[in-house]
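User: Please fill in residues for this 283-position structure.
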C-alpha cells in the first residue's frame, strides 16, 4: 500500500467561485492524499454567475486517460462532467482502472443541480447518461435535487422526513452503486446526510446556516474522498465531512461574502490535516 494514496480527480476547473478542482486539490493535499487532476472543462467562473466562459475538454480526455494507462489509482473521484461524450470516456477509464487495480474505488459526485434546478449546462440527456455511471461507483454523493433527477422522483424541497430520504436512497441503490450518501437534508435548524450502506441507513446532522453557498457539495465530497482514501470507514468519513462543512459555512456566514463566491475554506483548511492525525495518535 502507498504511504500517500493516489486519487484521480475528474472535474472541471473553474477559475472563480471555489468549486470542483479548485476545492478538491487543496483539500486532498492537506489531507495527505495525492490529487491528480483530469479537467473535464475550463470555466472562467462557475455556472452560478451571470456570465462565464466555458471550454469543453471532451476532445482531450481520451488521450489524457490513455497517457495515464501506465498509472494506477487508489480512488477515482469524479464530479462535474461537461458533455455527453465525456460519460463514455469516463466510464472506460473507470473500467480500465478497475482492471489494473481491482481495489481501486470510485467516488462519484453526480453534479447536476441544486435546489430543484438543473445547472445550466446539464441537459436531461446528460442526466440520463450520468445515471449509467452510477452503476460503476462504490459511493455516490447526490444532493436531494440530484437524487431526484437520478431516480425520476418528484422534487419537493430540501426538507425530507428520514423515511422519505431512506426511500430515495433505496431507489439510488437500485441503480447499482455500492453505497449512497444523500447530502443536504434539512430538518428545522439542522442539515444532515443520510448514508445507505449494506442495507442499512444512518443519518448524521449538524447545525445549519441559512445561506446556501456555491460549491458546498464539492467541498463535502472532497473531504469525504480524502477521509476514505486515508482509510476511514464511510460513516466516519461522512461525519468528518459534515462537521467540517458546518464549521466552515458558519465561519463564511460571519464574513458576509456573496454566496456565489463559495465557502471560505482557506482559513480553516489546515484543520483537515488534524482530523486524521488526531485519530492516528489515538487522541
Ligand atoms: O459546485 C458544483 C459545480 C461544479 N462545476 C461547475 C458548476 C457548479 C455549480 O454551479 O457551475 C462548473
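Assistant: Residues filled in for all 283 positions:
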Amino acid at each position: 500500500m502507498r504511504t500517500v494514496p493516489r486519487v484521480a480527480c475528474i472535474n472541471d476547473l473553474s477559475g472563480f467561485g471555489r468549486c470542483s478542482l479548485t476545492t478538491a486539490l487543496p483539500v486532498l493535499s492537506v489531507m495527505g492524499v495525492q490529487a491528480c487532476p483530469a479537467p473535464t472543462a475550463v470555466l472562467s467562473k462557475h455556472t452560478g454567475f451571470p456570465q462565464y466562459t466555458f471550454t469543453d475538454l471532451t476532445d482531450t480526455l481520451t488521450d489524457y486517460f490513455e497517457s495515464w494507462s501506465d498509472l494506477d489509482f487508489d480512488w477515482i473521484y469524479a464530479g462535474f462532467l461537461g458533455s455527453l461524450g465525456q460519460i463514455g470516456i469516463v466510464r472506460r477509464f473507470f473500467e480500465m482502472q478497475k482492471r489494473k487495480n481491482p481495489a481501486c474505488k470510485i467516488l462519484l459526485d453526480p453534479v447536476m443541480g441544486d435546489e430543484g434546478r438543473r445547472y445550466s449546462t446539464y441537459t436531461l440527456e446528460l442526466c440520463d447518461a450520468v445515471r449509467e455511471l452510477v452503476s460503476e461507483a462504490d459511493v455516490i454523493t447526490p444532493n436531494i435535487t440530484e437524487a431526484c433527477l437520478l431516480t425520476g422522483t418528484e422534487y419537493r424541497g430540501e426538507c425530507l422526513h428520514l423515511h422519505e430520504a431512506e426511500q430515495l436512497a433505496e431507489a439510488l441503490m437500485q441503480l447499482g452503486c455500492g453505497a449512497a450518501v444523500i447530502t443536504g437534508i434539512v430538518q428545522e435548524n439542522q442539515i444532515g446526510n443520510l448514508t445507505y450502506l449494506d442495507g442499512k441507513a444512518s443519518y448524521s446532522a449538524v447545525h445549519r446556516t441559512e445561506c446556501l453557498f456555491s460549491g458546498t457539495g464539492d467541498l463535502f465530497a472532497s473531504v469525504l474522498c480524502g477521509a476514505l482514501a486515508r482509510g476511514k470507514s464511510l460513516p466516519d468519513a461522512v461525519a468528518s465531512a459534515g462537521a467540517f462543512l458546518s464549521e466552515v459555512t458558519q465561519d463564511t456566514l460571519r464574513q458576509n461574502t456573496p454566496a456565489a463566491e463559495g465557502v471560505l475554506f482557506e482559513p480553516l483548511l489546515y484543520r483537515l490535516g488534524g482530523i486524521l492525525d488526531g485519530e492516528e495518535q489515538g487522541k
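For context: The domain at 6-274 is CATH 3.40.1190.20 (UDP-N-acetylmuramoyl-L-alanine:D-glutamate ligase).
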